[in-house]
Amino acid sequence: MIQARLQYILVFVLGTILLIGGNMAYSFSQSNLKFDEINLKTNSLNQSEPIYQAITGKFLAAKDLSSTPFKVAEESFLEESVMRNVGNVTNSMTFINTYLSPALVQATGKGTIETKDGQSIDWISSDIGTINSTGFFFHGIIHFSNTNSEKLSFLNNSLGIYVDTPEIKRTIWLVK
């Protein structure tokens, strides 16, 4: 079971790395073509245009759920953030964190992003994180639910990736 879990984590990390580094093109055949003769296709992730940027975060609560075979904890947070074309939002989130080692965390999350006028959208996520002396580093995939909220309807059933580090608060990019 542990071996299967580690394989899952490795596949997830590799997939996240490929999504983040998706602007690279790989070729496994030799060719005399020059780059200007090739019509390269890249993914639709535009790293220069995040849709979400956290400004401040606040730890709310933690509850230990299990200690064997790995420590599992439920942890809740609140972020004050800005969304492109929306403005200020609040993100209430809860993660189930599995501490595979003191430096490696696998997490599943759920939460709600709410605008200042009460419009909201729910989301779920899966992420992998590392912890070292400078802090935590998380990379994740997030799926937004459907909403009737006009301001957030552009997120209906969409998928994004995110990064959360000590230097870069949670930042989300949509994958189209």
What would you say this structure looks like, in words?
With 176 residues, the chain is mainly beta. The protein has one domain: Porin (Beta Barrel), CATH 2.40.160.20. 11% of the residues lie in helices and 51% in strands. The protein is built from 1 helix and 8 strands, in the order αββββββββ. It has one helix at residues 2-20, and strands at residues 52-66, 71-83, 87-101, 104-115, 120-132, 135-144, 159-164, 171-175. The protein has an 8-stranded antiparallel barrel with strand order 1-2-3-4-5-6-7-8. A hairpin with a 3-residue loop joins strand 2 and strand 3. The longest helix is centred in the N-terminal third of the chain and has 19 residues, at 2-20. The chain starts with a helix and ends with a strand.
Kindly summarize this structure in a few lines.
With 176 residues, the chain is mostly beta strands. It is built from 1 helix and 8 strands.
Defining key terms:
mainly beta, 8 strands, 11% helix, 176 residues
CATH architecture: Beta Barrel
- CATH fold label: Porin
User: What distance lies between the first and last C-alpha atoms, to the nearest angstrom?
Assistant: 34 Å
**Biggest pleated sheet:** 8 strands, antiparallel, barrel
The strands making up the biggest β-sheet line up spatially as 1-2-3-4-5-6-7-8
Q: Indicate the radius of gyration in whole angstroms.
A: 18 Å
Helix/strand order: HEEEEEEEE
Q: Note the overall shape.
A: globular
Total beta-strand segments = 8
| Category by helix and strand content | mainly beta
Topology:
Elements lengths: L1 H19 L31 E15 L4 E13 L3 E15 L2 E12 L4 E13 L2 E10 L14 E6 L6 E5 L1
Antiparallel strand pairs: 1-2, 1-8, 2-3, 3-4, 4-5, 5-6, 6-7, 7-8
